[in-house]
Amino acid sequence: MTHRRTFYTLLVLALTMLGTGAASASPSLYIIPNVTTLDIGTTTVGTPITRGIYLQNVGTSDLYVYSVTTVGDFTPLNVPGPFQPIQPGFSVYMELRLDATSVGTQTGGAEYNTNAPFGYYQGLTGVVEEGTSPPQAIMVNANADSMVRQGSPTTNYGSSHTLGIRRPSSGLGRYSFLRFNVPAFTGTVQSAVLRIRTKSTTINQAQVYDVNMGWGESTITWNNWTSGGTTYSFLRNTGSLPANQWHEIDVHEAIPAGGGTVTIGIATNLDLTLLQFHSRESANKPTLELIVQ
């Protein structure tokens, strides 16, 4: 009888030990880098960045990652699927992305849903700064242009296919004006050029002005262009303007911040030769070309 009780006692003890060993076999998640809050890094708005991490199984049975749920401006990438076990002592690679949808310090976290007995949550952070937008090209056709002629002081040339400049002398002077409506833009003007195409004559130099006046293409004349409080600012002298060529003239100082109306005046105080160039009514229209950023 004693031997029988001893056998049963040993059997129960063995079964208990086996049961205890089975219960102790469990997975355990360890994340590398092992930090409370993971810093993804710094980027500019609209430019996501990622940081890689390792999911390591430091337990004694297979680890299954069912899902990774993120909070905030973050997205998990390359998450191991629920049918991809991580064996004890092994690790897998995945990434966390800072989506960079808005400017500022972004905070959030990632929750790892696994078959481990304890959950795992890691904080996430990153910085999103204002980015530098790519340069933007803006081309504007003149919406009004005309010349005024000293020898015909009441005549309007707003519908002419030709503009012209000439030094005022013996009643021969001519000035030309071009107006552009620059659309609204953000950023800073990096360059702005007036493009005109000359006709069959060449002059040595012209003067370019930023003109502030209220004028009508169909009404401006030599007699009235200075009326109504017209003001103008000298921008620069050009170099030689050879015939039958396109010429680019720097006028960046005349462009109002954010866009608006621009009137450019062109004259010459050196040449008695008449320089003619194409107006907006011709095939070779004057344009204003900007680069903003």
What topology does this entry show?
Blueprint: H1 2-24, E1 29-32, E2 37-44, E3 49-57, E4 65-71, E5 74-77, E6 91-98, E7 104-114, E8 120-129, E9 136-141, E10 144-149, E11 162-165, E12 174-182, E13 189-197, E14 207-212, E15 231-237, E16 246-250, E17 260-267, E18 275-278, E19 287-292
Parallel strand pairs: 2-8
Antiparallel strand pairs: 1-3, 3-6, 4-7, 5-6, 7-8, 9-19, 10-12, 11-18, 12-17, 13-16, 13-19, 14-15, 14-17
What's this, in brief?
The protein folds into 2 domains: about 100 residues, Immunoglobulin-like; about 160 residues, Jelly Rolls (Sandwich). It is rod-shaped, with a radius of gyration of 39 Å.
What does this structure look like?
The protein is mainly β. The protein has 2 domains: 27-129, Sandwich (Immunoglobulin-like), CATH 2.60.40.10; 136-292, Sandwich (Jelly Rolls), CATH 2.60.120. It is 8% helix and 45% strand. It is built from 1 helix and 19 strands. It has one helix spanning 2-24, and strands at 29-32, 37-44, 49-57, 65-71, 74-77, 91-98, 104-114, 120-129, 136-141, 144-149, 162-165, 174-182, 189-197, 207-212, 231-237, 246-250, 260-267, 275-278, 287-292. A 5-stranded antiparallel sheet has the order 10-12-17-14-15, with no helix packed on it. The chain has a 4-stranded antiparallel sheet with strand order 1-3-6-5, with no helix packed on it.
